[in-house]
Amino acid sequence: MSKISAACIIIGDEVLNGKIVDTNSRFFAKLCFSLGIKLREVVVIGDDESQIIETVRRLWKQHQFIVTSGGIGSTHDDITYECLAKSFNLPAELNEECKKRMQEKSNPEGRLNVQQLKDFYKMATLPAGHTVKNYYPCDDLWVPVCSIKEQVFILPGIPQLFERLLECMLPVIKKIFEVKEKDAEYIRFFVKTTFTESQISHQLRMYQDEASKVSAEIKIGSYPHFGLGFNTVSILGEKKDEDYLTKIRDRAIKDLQGEELPAELEDAFSNERK
């Protein structure tokens, strides 16, 4: 796996008060995993200036790749751009390129009054300075991905936009963080067993202790599926250790009287809502 460390900041009172369910952090986690980048932290915070600034300043000192999600709309509680600018002691200014793209793709002058236009262009009031770069990865969208120090990337909270922009940003992300194909090569096995976690705990600890001597990147985990009558053992590591990981899988199948479970079924079981 890559040595790049990542973090995700989910910004929005609506997440904290239960109005919406955050799916962006999971999407980002899967994207990082596919690139071989280690997602180390996910933080959910409200639309609070001091909390946003404090969180960003803490995380950018600890991680090389940070994304924020949410708080870049046109209403009074959308303060992410302004707060991100303050986090790095930068101004927030109306970006003419973004404004032009808004005009070309949305025709705001033709449909909004003076106050509405002011609020609309709030979404083009971005951090400014020599450390800021704005990407427009999707040709049909005016929405930018604003980056600071090519380390912090500011994204919308709407899942459809968050996901699409990140997918379109993949070539840029790979270039910035020098992600090579070999870095993204990983392997993971799942073993299904009817034994309880207490019954398999000692065995899994033995697997992990042995595996850690082979590679610190090998991780053995257990996931209970309440009400389904089984648990899943996860065996994760780098592609270069595939032979060793295969041996652990086979041992787990034998020791735990289990069977291999396809990744798509494990994903369905793990995310099924009762």
Characterize the structure shown.
The chain is α/β, with parallel strands linked by helices and 274 residues long. The protein folds into two domains: 5-181, Molybdenum Cofactor Biosythetic Enzyme, Chain A (3-Layer(aba) Sandwich), CATH 3.40.980.10; 187-270, Alpha-Beta Plaits. It is built from eleven helices and twelve strands. Strands 2-1-3-8-7-6 form a six-stranded mixed beta sheet, with helices on both faces. The protein has a four-stranded antiparallel beta sheet with strand order 10-11-9-12, sandwiched between helices. A two-stranded antiparallel ribbon has the order 4-5. Helix 3 (49-59) packs across helix 4 and helix 9 packs antiparallel against helix 10. The chain is elongated. The model has no long low-confidence stretch (mean pLDDT 93). GO terms for molecular function: FAD diphosphatase activity. This is MoaB/Mog domain-containing protein. Residues 7-176 form the MoaB/Mog domain.
